[in-house]
Amino acid sequence: MDKILIKDLLVRGIIGVNDWERENLQDILINIEIEADLSQAGASDQLEESINYRTVTKRVIEHTETAKRLTVEALAADLAAICLKERGAQKVRVRVEKPGAVRFARSVGIEIERSSES
């Protein structure tokens, strides 16, 4: 299966359960892989035959900046659903990380996979 990659998208938003996390914007690092059949786009050289990664990225940024989720799990599920709404998207892998959230770790986070069948 072909993949569209959105790597190391850094967005600022509200995420977390602590009072200070609910009041201050934090860095949120997002990585997305969308699986789809991109052979038509490769053959025709027409964007309409593919998933527009710029459009997906704008939707992901907008949602992340405004969602104010308590958990990275909930935000990742939201972003997976956004990606799977794209025509032709069959499967998505979303990684959401909070850089600097835990002392001595570069970041902490989760990775989920969802498919259009589930």
How would you explain this protein's 3D organization?
This protein has 118 residues and is an alpha+beta fold. It has a single domain, classed as 2-Layer Sandwich (GTP Cyclohydrolase I, domain 2). It is 32% helix and 35% strand. β3 and β4 form a beta hairpin. α3 runs antiparallel to α4. The mean pLDDT is 95.
Count, helices = 4
The CATH class is identified as Alpha Beta
Unreliable runs? none
Q: What is the 3D shape?
A: elongated
In helices, the fraction of residues equals: 25-40%
Mean pLDDT: 95
Given the helix and strand composition, which structural class is it? alpha+beta
Characterize the largest beta sheet: strand count, sense, and whether it forms a barrel: 4 strands, antiparallel
Fill in the keyword field for this structure.
4-stranded antiparallel sheet; 4 helices; GTP Cyclohydrolase I, domain 2; alpha+beta; 118 residues
In short:
Helix content is 32%, strand content 35%.
Strand and helix layout:
Elements: E1 2-13, H1 19-23, E2 26-36, H2 39-44, H3 53-66, H4 72-84, E3 91-99, E4 107-115
Antiparallel strand pairs: 1-2, 2-3, 3-4
